[in-house]
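== Sequence and structure of one protein ==
=== Format: two labelled lines per protein ===
==== Data for this protein ====
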Amino acid sequence: LGFIPGHGAVYNGEYIKALIHVFVFGGLIAAQTSNVPGGYHAFLGIALGCFYFYMPIEAYRTAKARQASASAAPAALVEAEARRPIGAIILVALGILLLLGNFGLLEWDWLAKGWPIALIVLGVWMLISRMKEHP
């Protein structure tokens, strides 16, 4: 059931996760069919493919965890050690970017040239958090 958007999560009793899967899958398809510059179609296609194969893997992993322990709670959407809401932060950031794009406040040229900054910030954040864990 994991290959059908949201159905694997519904099978595992995770209805909010199922809704998120459906919205992300639909959003990626909608973005793929919109008027984005040519290079973004390839990125969106790869993201869609990755997400399509993520859904059944996540459903299988959750079902196995529940099978191993009947009283196990559903796995977190994005697991983090300090229980930071990483999944929610990512969704809010994507929503803000897409909203700014809808109102014409975000130029695609800036995004095309500036996206490596996000990778640098993420790498520095990961490096700092790992250094705090292992002094």
Observations:
- The helical segments are 7-11, 15-33, 38-68, 86-102, 108-114, 116-133.
